[in-house]
Amino acid sequence: MLDLAEQFLERSNLPAKADIDAVHIAAATVHGMDYLLTWNCKHIANAQIQGKLAEISLDFGYELPILCTPYELLGG
Hints:
Shape: globular
Strand content: 5-15%
Number of strands: 2
Strand order of the largest sheet: 1-2
Number of domains: 1
Organism: Microcystis aeruginosa NIES-4285
Distance between the termini: 32 Å
Radius of gyration: 11 Å
Largest sheet: 2 strands, parallel
Order of helices and strands: HHEHEH
Number of helices: 4
Protein name: PIN domain-containing protein
Helix content: 40-55%
């Protein structure tokens, strides 16, 4: 899981200061979560970086969960 988080930081637009966010995303990915709900739109629920995170996840044999806010999940 930490290897995946490290790759998220190295290969995406996540800044180094988002290391805990990278671990959070990696944990949800490795544990096969369908969704990761968050109010963190800067580093997690950010459409600008999700494509790259999905690509990195696939390289590790995982599928990236849907990263969104609770509001988005409810159709808002």
